[in-house]
Amino acid sequence: MQGMLKRAAVAGAVWAAAAVSAAAADFDWKFFTIYGVADRQTEWMRGFADDVRQATGGRLNITVFTGSELPYKGVDVYRALSRRQIEIGHSPTGFIAADLGLLDAMSMPFVCMDMQRFFDGALPQIEATFDAAIDDKFGATPIMHWAMPGQQVWSTKAIATLEDFKGMKIRTWNQGQVQTLDKLGATSVSITTAEVTPSLQRGLIDGAITASVNADAWNWHEVLGNGYLFNITLSHEVIAVNDAALAELPEDMRAAFLEVAQKWEGTLRQEVLTLDSQARANLTAKGIKLVEPSAEDAAALATMTADIAEAWAAQQGDAGRSVLAAIRAGCQ
To answer: Signal sequence span per UniProt (predicted)?
Structure first.
């Protein structure tokens, strides 16, 4: 559907009756997110599902499943979506890039580190390209684009300079992070989101890359004491719906569903902006030491990783070079 349904049907849509019908739903969908049962992101997805149920008078029921409830890892989400093992899927583009390299643009180190600039400047330039690529590859229409805040290193061992990375084992979740840690002399470890906290507790890893929102929500003050705020990337999050499932909905129901999705896209963007600052304050109050890279180390990081983005763009050809340039321009 080339993403055309996403915006076109939203205009002029009228919400269905507010009262939720007691009768069985006409459509039952499964929505999978990589996050955990108690995570704030999952709470948001359930809020979206509740609003859809309300907006469609109970005719469309969406059940949200998490990383511990279905046997999927991040790289499996859009494969499951394309096979219609799920109707809605949520995953960072860093995971989708295993099957669709163009979406790895936002994983390039230090290319875009400001959420508001991404939302306002970069995303409008690349959204249609990403939507078409996802639809062509997976038969799925993106309905929400948002982002998690800058991805930092949270560790049991203190990191004050780039030299401190040497010999550390750090959980990563995209290739750009792996390549960056290789340059810093650290070892990358690939494990599921649900496995990260237990691995930190048992000393199987020294740290992990994620956003402050997650570090706070997962109570990492109980298992580690350090945050190195090198802000390597944002985590570009995409939520998409299987094309066939979307096409099966009656026109009024589809319009109501897409209208709710548009509302929640804005809600998600605003929530993460607020939660990022709150999370950093909470982590500091709970005893985690937050360290900003020195100006020298920040410059060194940008210089030593520049070739990663350039090599990626060359592999993707004209489309990759165009997307990378748009992101850089939009995030300046």
So the answer is: 1-24
